[in-house]
Amino acid sequence: MAYQFERKHRVAIIGGGPGGYEAALTGAQLGAEVTLIERVGVGGSAVLTDVVPSKTLIATAEATKSIGEAADLGVQFFSRSDSGRPVRPEVTVNFSAVNARLLRLARQQSEDMKAQLMKSGVRIIQGHGRLDGAQRVIVSTARGPKGTDFDEIDADTIVLSMGASPRILPTAVPDGERIFTWTQLYTLTEAPEHLIVVGSGVTGAEFASAYTALGSKVTLISSRDQVLPGSDADAAMVIEDVFTRNGMTVLSKSRADSVVRTADGVRATLADGRTVDGSHCLIAVGAIPNTAGMGIEEAGVQLTDGGHIRVNRVARTSVPSIYAAGDCSDFLPLASVASMQGRTAMLHAMGDAVNPTELRNVTSNIFTSPEIATVGWTQKQIEDGIAQGVIYKLPLSQNPRAKMMGVKDGFVKLFARTGSGTVIGGVIVAPRASELILPIALAVEHRLNVDQLARAFSVYPSLTGSITDAARAMHIVD
């Protein structure tokens, strides 16, 4: 008697960043035979050269800033001179130690993720993968001086998670010594004397904020009227005010035409002919998806004009067997969204229960000082009539815990549906706003109204008290 065994569902994943990692774990959990192809290491650029190292650098900047502001709270640092007189010590940052630590943490995070995948039974191949039709991946792996090996992987489901790379300007080509992308900054052995940052989006603003705190003179070149042009206008105004108050030079409505090396630094030339001389320059003008030369269009997968992979709310592409997650897709470019896409893709492909991703429920955060956290509908959408809502803003300076901490900048802003009072969004500008936004995110996700949010007990005193205070002020009158 011949027995027939059901073959396992075969999954091939190209790219081991947050999206590919979550897809691999979920596929293995659901019993699939999973192969993950990654060029540089599990975690991808998000872990090795982007999110983990940059946020570690920002944590160091926050510690430096806290020491500098401790005097406002009555804490004073003194050492003794040879004569016994008290001398205020100088706060310095050991960049070699800082960068060694952040790269070590990035490698450790990558190794931890790799170990978790292997424990789950995922097969990991280090190499370059590309599509060969809708159900096959060609993998090239280096085999030393003799050349390259090629392998073919047949799959029932393919997940593309190749991420994106910094956009390179032909008139401002990074060299990794004086002109950098955000992936190259971690070779510095000392703080730049004068860092020019080209681009005032999220990445540019975060690094400008961090290096100012780390002691560098910073000039931020922004082509828009205000920094962080895609963010809440009130939040961007607070951040720009903090930037200038901390000594940063913000050049608004200024476009950099070129950045070149000089004898001892760099020179940025603006569109109006002005020049800015500095010691180093960071180019932060967006990213491009790593989709070129991957056989994607040849497999029938639709791309946007910018090269991103078109996906629906379950991360499926125009080809039923192929999904895409993360910055290579045309969804929101956040690590948390990439993870959710990877998980959702596998649940959908394997026939499990799945909730399509709702972008309006996604929380995002900008790691400037203070941070900006947002969720749901925006004030501009409400003002433009796209969403019907009321707005309430509460300055953080009124919060008792903020006063104790010496926090002067920031606010909590809530958006509620007109009539029902359902919470539809919010903005928090505060230290650790990334941690404070969760109550509003839960309210948005579960369609709580302002009265229900106000009934939750916040600790007194706490920064979250401003959330319940704002909700209380928006009480629904019957």
UniProtKB/TrEMBL annotation:
Question: What positions does the domain FAD/NAD(P)-binding occupy?
Answer: 10-342
Q: SUPFAM superfamilies in the record, alphabetically?
A: FAD/NAD(P)-binding domain, FAD/NAD-linked reductases, dimerisation (C-terminal) domain
| Residues the record lists as binding FAD | K55, G129, D327
Alphabetically list the UniProt keywords.
Answer: FAD, Flavoprotein, NAD, Nucleotide-binding
Nucleotide-binding is among the record's keywords: yes
InterPro entries reported in the protein's UniProt record: FAD/NAD-bd_sf (IPR036188), FAD/NAD-binding_dom (IPR023753), FAD/NAD-linked_Rdtase_dimer_sf (IPR016156), Pyr_nuc-diS_OxRdtase (IPR001100), Pyr_nucl-diS_OxRdtase_dimer (IPR004099)
Which GO MF term does the entry hold, naming one? flavin adenine dinucleotide binding
- All copies of the Pyridine nucleotide-disulphide oxidoreductase dimerisation domain together span 364-470
Matching Pfam families: Pyr_redox_2 (PF07992), Pyr_redox_dim (PF02852)
Needed co-factor(s)? FAD
- Has the keyword Nuclease been applied to this entry? no
State the source organism's domain of life: Bacteria
Binding-site positions, NAD(+): G199, S200, G201, V202, T203, G204, A205, E206, G286
Q: How is the cofactor bound?
A: Binds 1 FAD per subunit.
Family listed: Belongs to the class-I pyridine nucleotide-disulfide oxidoreductase family.
What NCBIfam families does the entry give? PRK07845.1 (NF005883)
PANTHER family per record = MERCURIC REDUCTASE (PTHR43014), NAD(P)H DEHYDROGENASE (QUINONE) (PTHR43014:SF1)
Q: What's the protein here called? A: Dihydrolipoamide dehydrogenase
